[in-house]
Amino acid sequence: MSHIILGILFLLVALLAVVSVIRQLKIKNYFALIFSVLTAATFGFFSIATIISELANL
Prior knowledge:
Layout: H1 2-27, H2 30-56
């Protein structure tokens, strides 16, 4: 059960990173854009993998 909560927290961080990607595109801050994309991809991957892993074990 605690792993699902961890996956949801990772998903929230990934969604905030997507918001940051949109903001960085608007103000054309490419250095921050790179880090925002990497953060969104990393946390997005781990959140989806964690949730799928926990649901497969039920």
